[in-house]
Specification:
homodimer, Trna Endonuclease, Chain: A, domain 1, eight-stranded antiparallel sheet, five-stranded mixed sheet, 40% strand, DNA-binding
Chain lengths: 257, 257
DNA sequence: GATTGCATATCGTTG
DNA sequence: CAACGATGTGCAATC
């Protein structure tokens, strides 16, 4: 069946498969192929996948995905911007190649037999709205510093040390420096090490510096290391409020200056 | 069209969409729906996606993917093991829910109108064979230590320090300790910091300890920090040879003991 | 264009 | 089951 928005065909011949892929690429459509195929990849690594039935997705932006019937991650893929070519062999087999220039990577799919092939022109203007990132925590703390503790005053965000950027640098009510390390999910031992490294730049500070790990929760080993190092933990859930209106955010920003 | 391996339908009614999703779930098939839909997610974070045409994939292992017509990553998803339920509303709209228990996460898709719906029973026994990982580098170095430098002798792999595991610990021909940090791709500043941390445990060693970053290449800033810290860089590409025969590897292992 | 660091990261391995 | 580290991580923001 064919109309302007999509085309699909079941049990296509090799010729038909070739033609529909060509057409889909020309129209910059999203192409779906369910087929028995083999896959080779060469680039940052190298891989090979023996014959089996998988879903192939080619997107108009050059993204290329091969999905087996398990896992969230594609078994092979190419990123946006990759260039696709399709060839038909004498025996009717279809070869689809996707090439990326930098870094040089090549994905080759040999389609033995397609079960269904289709392409779609997707109308989709909306972007995903997300909340609950580390950045949302940061904004919350800058707007309401008392969440960390009474009298906490942020000085800067993204303060650079020789060991990377500190998320929030501030002072407590006694004027002691506080280094905050934010994590939007359960903090592990590596988060504590990160905080420990930031503090190295301040080890000569006379007033003493407090290191605080801010996260919804912390692993057992991480807490042990934290306490052994004289660091602190502050439990804080990342705010998950989706912004309904962008002007509100702007007003808030202006009024808070 | 219907047979044992797959079913597909174009411009299905709400009832038909519901029925095919039900059937696909029951048969533990891979379900594909191209439709206009809205998506909500709540769990580790929260997100909302307004109406638009996307590809929905439900895999028999519970993996759930929603793909827009751009990017490699799905715009929303649920991991393997999630449980799917489908409902039909009075107005013919379809609600698909995927729930994960731990952590608690819920994905809700409201299908306004499906353009095509299909399901497939995929025959696929092959696993992906990959080469070019950090582990391949490690094996290469343990088998042929001279690749690092003449006279290098590995002592242990995965040596534990207070700052994490060292990839390979060894000695040079003069008996000085060498700490190797392996990276399968271009090493950045964080790799140098990691190596720096490992060496802290050895800073009292009388003979002096050498820290060596082993990677195919290194960023400019990373090289600067490396040299400032008196560390070394050894260029090594991860071996990309796909193993043809597992016995060969075993033989090699036995003969090298 | 190169580099850095977050992510609903996902996924395998280990304790 | 929890936790830790690698990944062809992908991706956006920043330089």
């Amino acid at each position: 069946m064919t109309n302007r928005r999509f085309t699909s065909l079941e049990n296509p011949t090799g010729e038909q498969t070739y033609k529909i892929i060509e057409e889909g690429l020309r129209k910059r459509a999203m192409i779906l192929i369910f087929s028995c195929c083999r896959v080779c990849y060469y680039g940052r690594a190298r891989s090979r996948l023996g014959p089996g039935e998988r879903l192939i997705i080619i997107k108009p932006d050059g993204s290329f995905l091969i999905h087996q019937d398990r896992k969230v991650e594609p078994v092979n893929w190419q990123p946006p911007g990759s260039k696709v070519r399709v060839k038909i062999e004498d025996d009717g087999k279809i070869l689809v190649e996707s090439i990326r220039r930098k870094p040089a990577e090549k994905l080759t799919v040999e389609i033995e037999r397609a079960h269904t092939i289709s392409y779609y022109l997707a109308r989709d203007i909306h972007e995903l709205e997300v909340a609950g990132h580390e950045e949302d925590m940061r904004q919350l703390i800058l707007e309401s510093p008392d969440i960390i503790e009474k009298g906490f005053k942020p000085i800067t965000r993204e303060y650079q040390t020789s060991n990377g950027f500190i998320d929030i640098l501030g002072k407590d009510e006694n004027g002691s420096l506080m280094v905050l390390e934010l994590k939007s999910r359960r903090a592990g031992i590596s988060a504590v090490r990160q905080l420990k490294r930031y503090l190295e730049d301040f080890k000569d500070d006379k007033h003493g510096v407090r290191g605080v790990l801010v996260a919804p929760s912390i692993t057992h080993d991480a807490r042990e290391l934290l306490e052994a190092e004289g660091l602190e933990f502050k439990s804080l859930e990342p705010p998950q409020e989706l912004k309904k209106d962008h002007r509100m955010t702007l007003d808030k920003f202006i009024s808070s200056r």
